[in-house]
Every structure is written in structure tokens, then in C-alpha cells.
Fold this sequence. Notes:
Number of strands: 17
Shape: globular
CATH topology of the largest domain: QueA-like
Oligomer: single chain
Strand content: 25-35%
Amino acid sequence: MLTSDFDYDLPRELIAQTPIEPRDSSRLLVFDRKSGTRTHTHFSKIGSFLNPGDLLVRNQTRVLPARIAARKKTSGGKAELLLLRNLGADVWEALVGGKRILPGDRLTLSDSVEAIILEALDSGRRIVRFEGPFLDFLMSHGQMPLPPYIHERLEDPERYQTIYARPELTGSAAAPTAGLHFTERLTNELLAMGIGIADVTLHVGLDTFQPVKEDSPEQHHIHKEWCQLDVGTAQRIIETRARGNRIVAIGTTAARTLESAAAAAIQSGSDDPVIPISGDTGIFILPSYQFRAVDAMVTNFHLPKSTLIMMVSAFADRESILSVYREAIEQRYRFFSFGDAMLIL
């Protein structure tokens, strides 16, 4: 298995630059893994492909305004920080841009807030401690961390948040984009159909932004992300499976959380499909992986050679996924974060 096995050519004009309105008017490509059939519809019609008793599991994390402009205190040179995850108090793991920013350096964010570089990690990441009223500064001056392939200005920062993101669970460096398609109207319609909704949390981190650079995916080091699946959600998953209904992951982040909880169940010796978990996960799902908790998945179209296209290629084999992607390109679907969606059954 090579990283190049997950490459494909995408016309630049198909990279969605702005979100569509309303959210659920985006297109939806439904792919049935068993029959191989593909259906072209709109996201607002997703209920037509679900059954009463199915359980949608969504990621309720909220995106941090995690991009911060700064200057080197000694030289005044420009710097930028992209917060990845909180390590406790005012210490963060961050992606730091700028020339030769090393441990011991200080960055000025404002008259009252500074950042001290504590440790250098790989891939431009640093451990950073902030001094001063940092959280107040972050909420008033931090910018939404849009992916680098989006060049248009986002008029409403809330369009890079799901409608169900919880403020007390702010902690992601990127949105769980499969959830961006849901509206209140659609959610209520699904609930009225007898389709259940449960929540997990995974704070999205660095790997969303980075394609795999190693020749072999097995050589890629995936960074850990904090996730949680609580007792209530675990019980609903157990009950759904016992009825013979499906667990539908809303996005790869929900899927990673579900599969992390499934791995924990196996490790603990439990016969249940999942057990409650809370903590870091470094699960890296590649083809040959056997999914244990996810029966269907809603997901956007992912970057070539990314860990996410590898993951969906594990859920539905690589040749099928690349064939579906080619069809989506022919049909002029919109790709990536603000793009259209797939439902893989």
C-alpha cells in the first residue's frame, strides 16, 4: 500500500470556497457498498436513505478562533500561531509559523499578552505557554482557522461551526465538516421519522490540515486528539445494535471516536460494541481495518493522499471510493470543507 494509491486529480474550480445556503441544500451522493449503486440527490433528502431506529452519532465540538497573529519580541518579525490543543492552564500545542522560532523565544500578541516557546516538536509544532489574559484575547482577536485551500473571506464565522456545536466544548482546530450540512429543520424532520441522534466529542487537530507525505501510509505518524463518548451515548449505541438498527457516523471525527470506543470495549473484554471513553486517541484507520461500531457514514469529499480518504477507503474499498470520486468530479460536485457530502451505506 502506497500513499500514491490514494491520489486523484481534482480541478481547482471544484474546491468549494464558500458555504452554500441553506446548509442542507448541498448535494449528496449516496453510495451503497453492497450493491454498488450510486444515487445523486440533495442533503435535505438524507432521511429517505435512513430507517426509523437508526442512530446518527455527531461530533459536538466547537471550533476555536485558533489562528493568532504575533510578532517576535526581539526582532519584531512576523509570526503566526494555530492552536491545536490545550495541554492544561495556559499551555498549548500550536503550529507556529515564522522564521527560526525556537524554544525560549517570546512572541508578542498584544500589549498585555505574550507567548513563550517551551519546546519544539515535529512538523512546525511547538509547546507554548501564554502569559497575560490570554483567553479574553483569543476570543476577541483570534481568527477562524479556515483550511489553506479556502481563499475567500468567510463573512459569517458561524458558518464554520455546526448548528449543534456546544460552546463549553470549544477546542477544535478545524470543523467536523460533515455536520455543517445539518439544519434545525432537517434535524427535527429526522427526529420525527424516529431516527435517533446522539453526541460524542472529538477536538479536531493537526492531521486535518496535512496530507500524508511519507511514501507508505504505515510510516505516517498521526497526532493524538482528545475525544469522549459518554455513558448515555454508549447505552444508546448498545440498544440500537440490539434492535438491529444502524449506527451512522456523521463524519470521520465521529467515526474515529466510535471506533476508539469499540477498541476500548475489546481491550476491556466487554461484549458490548462500545464502552464509554474519555481521553486521547491516536487511532489511524487504513484499508484492511475492520469497523466494529460504524455501520454507515456521512462524510465530505477529502483531500488526495490524506488520512481521511484512506479512512473512507477502509470503510468502502479504495477502488470503489476512487471510482465514486471520479463520478463526483464528472458531476461537478463541490469538494472539501464547504463542499458537498457522501452517504456511504
